[in-house]
Cysteine desulfurase (Croceicoccus mobilis), 404 residues
Amino acid sequence: MTTELLSRKADFPGMVTADGKPWHYLDTAATAQKPQAVVDAMTRALGRDYATVHRGVYSRSAEMTLGYEAARRRIAAFVGGQEDEIVFTRGATEAINLVAATWGVANLKKGDRILLSTLEHHSNIVPWQMLREKTGVEIDVCPLTEDGRIDIEAASRIVGKRHKLIALAHVSNVLGSKLDVAAAADLARSVDAKLLLDGCQAVPRLKVDVEALGCDFYVFSAHKLYGPTGIGALWAKKDILDAMPPYQGGGSMIDRVTFERTTWADAPTRFEAGTPAITEAIAFAAAADYVDSIGIEAIEAHEERLTAMARDELAKINSLRLYGPEDSAGIISFTLGDIHPHDLGTILDEENVAIRAGHHCAQPLMDHLGVPATARASFALYSDEDDIAALLRGIERTMRIFGS
Ligand code: PMP
């Protein structure tokens, strides 16, 4: 399987350095490299197929509209939803802001509570704090288990009838820990709260079926799924989406406008004001096609294998501290003695190894771990053993430079 996936490295034009050397890209959790198929789909959509959607009476625009709506169907199918349950957004961040600003404002009031967890990305914290400012809703934080998973048992002791929303990362962008979604969904159901899953790191690595997961909202970004930046999706159950007020006002999201009164288009169009990210939507669908051509299960197995291998090797380094559970999904965070992760990242860059160093937009998690930053290596379908070997060589060199 590895050999088959390895040959896919050639599908990614970005996987070499400017002077043609192999680039050991271990920052996919920040954003994934793009396969040529996605670049080609985007180029075609921006070039010979380009026109606006939803308005033109001429054939090119009608075809582009079909392409844009086909992309919606494609993304819905990719996560097991229906096409009219997918809202295209700028990304996961906008999708969460949309839920907070529409569903949240319409349904939550002072005294209601939201449950988040210690490991959430800022994009699944700050929009709820902004909603707290507007509505007086209160926020509770679910602690983590010793090995860095969201502790649903602890959550069940926190959650009560006043909780209207539980919003959790499906996979942590720092620790790679996978949420026990079934337990989270049971808990949400038991108090009649909605469950929002931040699927940014799960969609590129695990089979996601929103119906089977039992959530109410699911958000993700195309650029982590080998697609373009500037687009992502909110999936929400149709009855919830239908009842949500609009997000932004403008063209396309209306039914009828007069100066006295405006009526809204049906969902999902109601939530897509303005000319949408047409070319990005088409390239997003091409990314889903590409991932399906390999098989998400094969990608998951490949990343699992690489993660286990890397964790085993990293654990042999005395001064290195690993964070997160053994079975983390393709993402490993660590610190190396008292060497700052930024220094490590800079030295690794000289070896053509790209990792992320910092707080990973998860400052509350850094506070919990008692560190200002971690180094993070994350894998993708194009990662291989050579990348791990290069990472280990770079770590050894860094330790030599720092005399540790
Ligand atoms: N949630 C998680 C878990 C993430 O990893 C990220 C991206 N780092 C986001 C949300 C935000 O995604 P975006 O910046 O694409 O909106």
User: Anything to note?
Assistant: Residues 59-78 form the longest helix (20 residues).
